[in-house]
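Long-time lurker. I teach an intro course on protein structure, and each term I like to show students one example going from raw sequence to a predicted 3D structure in token notation. This year I'd like something fresh instead of my usual example. Would anyone be willing to generate the tokens for the chain below so I can use it in lecture? Attribution to the forum is fine with me.
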Amino acid sequence: MSTYFISTLGCRVNQYESQAIAEALRKKGMQPAEKPGQAGNIYINSCAVTSAAVRDLNKMIRRMHALAPNARIIVTGCAAQIFKQDLDSMPEVDMVIPQKQKKDLLFSLEQDLKPEGRKAPDFITATSTRARPVLKVQDGCSRACSYCIVPRARGGPVSRRPEEILSEIKGLLSKGFSEIVLCGINLGQYGRDLDTEPDFWDLIILLEENLLPDWENRARLRLSSLDPSLLNSRALEVIASSKLLCPHFHLALQSGSPRILRHMRRNHYHPEEISGFVSLLRQAMPSFALGADILVGFPGENYEDFSVTRKLVEELPLTYAHVFSYSPRPHTPAAEYPDQVPETEKKLRSKIIKKLVQEKKDAFLQSLLDQKKLRLVMEDERKGMSQYYVHCEASHSLHGLKAGSRAVAEPLRIEGSKLWVELLGQYW
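-- Reply from a regular --
Happy to contribute to a lecture. Here you go:
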């Protein structure tokens, strides 16, 4: 019997596609292996967004080969699209399937390529190995930010039809899952390629209208990274009136300097607009979690530019952030820009922002102690994710709790960056 093992690097979209591939392989009679050494076929779903991601891929390939020297190693994903020739030359790799051909994996690999003339089916999932399933609503991006390699790897924006998304969500909820994470490469470009051109907030309204009758207080939707261009008056209206959205928003901020945003080719929003939206959101919602992606050390970023970003981080009510140091990506304009920032300076700026963010995170955790209760989706019998994107650990378990189920908890104390809670009941 053929066995497989899938290792996923990178974003939530990759996580979703790996789940869809795993389900397709099982339908073809292949069985998942618990460990790489037990697998006959090892699939590595790769990322190329940073140079560190590519280094991680190379390490993963060698590690998998060491653990399973007789297994067939198949590499797919964004790095397979951009660095196919390099990966083909690695002796440990048996097959490279570029991102744009990844859907071929939904066919059986008894043949190395999809049957001639047959169109590969779309990615779709019926279950998840995660307590909180990820669901892709959109792929690709046409923004062409000067530092970003993703459009070369994934192409332009492609949106899934609202009715298909709704059907998949209902199927997952019917399996007992309580939280669905909606993800995409650029949610701000959702719907532009569809006949009626709905935007992302149209999609959320449709999901609310169709899910609330059966799933109010029984399920919730969490949004992944939002392009700041989505933060308009309509967004505020939809978010404030929603009964399904988690009070958690993650912004692809990148920089607080308008000058640097122009060089990044991200001048479709202004940092002041973000600050204004967040101020209005604070008036509309008593509490919420706010995350951000922040990129420091972009070519030409001087200390004044960095200081503007630091000031914005100080002003925003961030509860966490993903802080990256700029790394040149091949065939992107920014890789050829003058005034590249030295690595030592990048590390220093990253350290400064991370320290600020940690202080804000600590303060937010303290504020959660004033909450009367938190609504958790359990990841096992004692660990769960709150609506505020904070991992919680219970002092004791409740009988019958399992991964994906709901629980109400009272905050107890904070130890380090861990929030301890007492489980009060099995339902919200």
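Some talking points for your students: The CA atoms of residues 28 and 108 lie 6 Å apart. The mean pLDDT is 95.
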